[in-house]
Design brief:
The chain has 504 residues and is of the alpha/beta class. Helix content is 34%, strand content 17%.
């Protein structure tokens, strides 16, 4: 059996590659080890007894370019959140409300102007840099010129911790800004490796604005739209087919599955982590093994809990991102504990209620009863904490995290669960077992700068491998990361050329 292209993995990036390839007239086969499409970008009935389709892993959308939506004709509806975040503090809280700038300025206090200035800086970087994400890689010098010296210094050149301490006076405000540099990344704000800088950059440039929107119907609607585009163009998707080996001489590739079948193709597009691709090629992985850094908790509530702060309603607090124990000092303390191999005693986490913005993910009975979903993302929970005792460490992390949540609530969060079964917790090891991300790393590995770091890479797409007919189209490619489709598109552009991308 032979195809023009084989795509390994039916996650959103693999489906993006498949759609572009099929629209360009190539015969395409997608091989997916699971029984469903979507990978980490899927919606699921997490609690089978209830009609609620939660975004099981990824949940908000920012990095998917409108260019990809337009080129593939994707039918998507995104809801813009009025409230960006709420952060409880010792003397009340900070509500970042785009519809009430006066309230936002009041809550930010002496940091109000600095916040506006920093948002202006990141917004301008987003406007200038994001369009380059679907172009050949530029040099660092070109990107420096593109974003300007101030932005280059503050976001690219010096540790983000230094920038935030220079710009802001308040611990809580510094923490709000820093969390963008820590999502899915085990990093310290002041470290010279600038890993937190890279993570923050990807979280503030999405769609040229930095906004994080709610995909109506759940993140699975994004994957479904991509699958529809691929299938409509003629691609084939084969589920429950695990790829175990990849052989190539640079012109003809042979993809072997666990069932013994072999598929030949001119090119292979690997929507897997780089270390997985190395294993399929029979090579020793380069660099350290990926290590995830998050605890994911999904909940279904009978009602939203009240906050200790009387100045906000539950609807205000939970419709944006609720930052819990994520002050700058608290984030650093949690990092240091985790680096020593201890589950943080006061885990920093953030919580968000999808159903406030998009009740369509709930059945009519749940909506009528006032039920809501809750998604919690815990920071500084690296894989190493769970390796020796996966179940015991997961339970301890959950208990401490729920206590952290309760510290800002007027009632225990567990009292608001629909029932005892409507709470799901996943450590990085659970993520690895479920969707095949090594170490549970949601980005397949440390994020890279979105430009060429060597002269030889200028003009490439950041998806090329040592084999000329094998492309890395997943989150581990340069300019990979979250739900974006960018590496999926870039891999096809590297193979077919940019002129082939808008046809169909």
């Amino acid at each position: 059996m032979r195809y023009d292209a084989v795509v390994i993995g039916a996650g959103h990036n693999g489906l993006t590659s498949a759609a572009y390839l099929a629209r360009a007239g190539r015969s395409v086969l997608v091989l997916e080890r699971a029984e469903v499409i979507g990978g980490a970008a899927r919606s699921a009935r997490v609690f089978p007894a209830y009609d609620a389709r939660l975004s099981a892993y990824s949940y908000l959308l920012s990095l998917l370019p409108e260019q990809i939506v337009d080129e593939l004709g994707l039918c998507l509806k995104l809801h813009r959140r009025r409230i960006s975040s709420y952060t409880p503090t010792d003397n009340g809280g900070i509500l970042i409300d785009h519809g009430d700038p006066a309230r936002t300025a009041h809550d930010l206090g002496p940091d109000a102007q600095a916040w506006e200035d920093f948002a202006g800086l990141t917004g301008e970087v987003a406007h200038r840099l994001f369009p380059t994400m679907t172009e050949p890689l530029r040099s660092a010098k070109d990107v420096r010129s593109l974003v300007g010296e101030q932005a280059w210094t503050d976001l690219f050149a010096r540790p983000i911790g230094e920038t935030l301490q220079h710009r802001f006076t308040g611990d809580a405000v510094r923490g709000i800004a820093l969390t963008d540099g820590l999502i899915g990344t085990f990093a310290r704000a002041g470290d010279a490796d600038l890993l937190a800088n890279r993570c923050l950059l990807y979280h503030v440039i999405g769609r040229g604005t930095g906004d994080w929107d709610v995909p109506v119907g759940g993140i699975g609607r994004v994957t479904d739209a991509l699958a529809d585009a691929a299938l409509a163009a003629g691609a084939q998707i084969r589920l429950d087919t695990e790829v175990v080996a990849l052989e190539t001489d640079g012109e003809l590739a042979r993809v072997r599955a666990a069932d013994g079948s072999v598929v030949e193709s001119d090119a292979v597009f690997a929507g897997v982590a780089p270390v997985v691709l190395d294993r399929l090629r029979g090579r020793s992985p380069a660099g350290a093994a990926p290590e995830g850094a998050q605890l994911k908790v999904n909940m279904l509530l009978s009602r939203l809990p009240a906050l200790k702060d009387p100045s906000v309603t539950p609807e205000q607090a939970f419709s944006g991102t609720l930052h819990i124990n994520e002050g700058y000092a608290a984030l650093d303390a949690a990092y240091l504990q985790a680096a020593r191999g201890q589950v943080p005693t006061v885990p920093p986490c953030e919580v968000y209620c999808h159903s406030l913005s998009d009740p369509s993910i709930l059945g009519e009975e749940l909506v009528a009863a006032g039920a809501h979903t809750l998604t919690l993302f815990g920071l500084h929970m690296p894989t190493r904490l769970f390796s020796d005792d996966p179940a015991g460490a997961r339970q301890r992390a959950l208990e401490l995290t729920l206590a952290s949540v309760d510290s800002v609530l007027a009632e225990p969060i567990e009292d608001c669960l629909l029932d005892a079964s409507t709470l799901e917790v996943r450590s990085p090891l659970d993520v690895e077992a479920s969707v095949g991300m090594p170490g549970g790393h949601i980005f397949h590995g440390d994020l890279q700068w979105p430009f060429a770091e060597s002269s030889s890479d200028v003009g490439t797409w950041g998806v090329e491998t040592a084999d000329p007919n094998v492309y890395l189209c997943g989150a581990g490619a340069r300019r990979g990361g979250g739900v974006s489709g960018i590496p999926g598109r870039n891999a096809v552009a590297a193979h077919l050329g940019e002129d082939a991308m808008s046809g169909g």
